[in-house]
Design a protein that fits this description.
Elements lengths: L12 E2 L9 E2 L7 E2 L2 E2 H5 L1 E4 H6 L21 H19 L3 E5 H4 L6 H22 L2 E6 L18 H20 L4 E5 L4 E2 L7 H22 L4 E5 L8 E2 L4 H10 L7 E5 H6 L4 H10 L3 E5 L18 H11 L10 E3 L12 H26 L1 H9 L6 H7 L5 H8 L12 H11 L1
């Protein structure tokens, strides 16, 4: 298929912060070295198939408005093939190395699971061909276990055992095609794994079944030789009132409780962190300090609306916080920075796909540079280390080493007065961050 879907959009190049060309990067220079690696290596950007290629611009209050060249094709499989070709034009023009998908994003669902498998195989064959031609990788694959009416009561946590079996068959196939395409990761996102009211719910059975499902999946990954990361993604609220995969802390407790923590890591989304009442930085730090940081879904929420708006990230302070955490790890690989973000409903023209991604890529590039300068300066890290210095020697080090109990600690402190405390200097810390921004 030689058709160009976005003829008005050139190859996006770096032109620097002084450029007023909307179709140019102002801060993202993929080959620029920052903190010992190129921006491309640090950021590992990925296009999310579901929002970018299949999103229609609908919201809870209105139908789709997006204008897309492939929507004029009425045959579902031919439309799916055209959409896949269009994806690689997007990736080429944005110079992005990765994409992510749900199985039902790329291939239409059939009347039976067998027919859905056949449809998926046909589109995967095309994707594999295009990946070779364009030198693009699959960051991760996953299965859509939330849209179809069969998943009304969940998938792995459904009250119906046949639905559990259907979900297992669907995930089995999705893992196989992810491996076939050389996927670096596989994500488990429990879009409906939770309950609306506890009065009609056997919560223990549902949680046990979710653990059984994940254990079966990990066993199958080993069986087929899939060596990528297995990632669980937190999501609070929406659509169920209580979701079992609420936040990073909840998933950590779940994986540890069921003995699965050595088989999975965590894929964290900014908008989900906001819905859980956290910052993205909080969730990333909790995961990384527990050795569970796997990959990131880069978007932002609207703090005024309170629902999952999945916006393109344009907040530099939030990007700085994210990249500051990433720079304190060995990097995101084999994970990456997936733009799980959709354009605003008013941005419905085809070219807006590129403008949205340019804005987000520049935001994270700028965040990376600022975070690297902060880390090099070391003022915040030094302040935090000094604040907890009492734990590095003396009684603090002895407590950490397990050399004390309540009796010995009472004896130590009984006549010790006064105890000196120091300021947390929140305002200074936040001003110091602003100094770099």
């Amino acid at each position: 298929m030689s058709k160009e879907f976005f003829p008005n959009v050139p190859k996006i190049k770096y032109e620097g912060p002084e450029s007023d060309n909307p179709f140019a990067f102002k801060f993202y220079d993929p080959d620029k070295k920052v903190a010992g690696k190129t921006m491309r290596e640090h950021l590992r950007f990925s296009v999310a198939y579901w929002h970018t290629m299949t999103g229609d611009g609908s919201d809870p209050f209105g139908v789709g408005v997006n204008i897309r060249p492939w929507l004029s094709i009425t045959d579902k499989m031919e439309q799916a093939k055209a959409r896949m070709h269009a994806l690689f034009e997007v990736l080429d023009k944005l110079d992005i190395d990765f994409f992510c998908f749900h199985d039902r994003d790329i291939a239409p669902e059939g009347e039976t699971l067998r027919e859905s498998h056949r449809n998926l195989d046909e589109i995967v064959s095309l994707a594999k061909q295009l990946m070779g031609e364009h030198k693009v990788d699959l960051l991760w694959g996953t299965a859509c276990l939330f849209q179809h009416p069969r998943f009304t009561h969940g998938a792995a946590t459904s009250c119906n055992a046949d639905i559990f079996a259907y979900a297992a068959g669907q995930v089995k196939k999705a893992m196989e095609v992810t491996k076939e395409l050389g996927g670096h990761n596989y994500v488990f996102w429990g879009g409906r794994e939770g309950y609306d009211t506890i009065w009609n719910t056997d919560m223990k059975l549902e949680l046990d079944n979710m653990a059984r499902f994940l254990e079966m999946a990990a066993d199958y990954a080993k069986k087929i030789g899939f060596n990528g990361q297995l990632l669980v993604e937190p999501k609070p609220k929406e659509p169920t009132a209580h979701q079992y995969d609420y936040d990073v802390g909840n998933i950590l407790a779940f994986l540890l409780g069921y003995g699965l923590a050595d088989r999975f890591r965590i894929n964290i989304e900014q908008n989900h962190a906001i819905l859980a009442g956290h910052t993205f930085q909080h969730e990333i730090r909790l995961a990384r300090q527990n050795g569970m940081l796997g990959s990131l879904d880069a978007n932002q929420g609207d703090y005024l609306l309170g629902w999952d708006t999945d916006q393109m990230t344009t907040s530099i302070p939030e990007a700085v916080a994210v990249m500051y955490e990433v720079l304190h790890t060995d990097g995101l690989a084999p994970g990456g920075m997936n733009f799980d973000a959709k354009l605003r409903r008013g941005s419905f023209e085809p070219d807006d796909i590129f403008l949205g991604h340019i804005a987000a890529m520049d935001t994270y590039a700028r965040g990376l540079e600022i975070a690297a300068r902060m880390k090099d300066a070391g003022t915040v890290d030094t302040f935090v280390a000094d604040r907890y210095s009492s734990w590095k020697s003396g009684i603090g080090a002895e407590i950490v080493a397990g050399k004390h109990d309540f009796d010995s600690l009472e004896k130590y402190i009984l006549d010790k007065a006064p105890i000196e405390i120091t300021s947390g200097r929140r305002e200074w810390v936040e001003a110091e961050i602003n100094r770099f921004i």
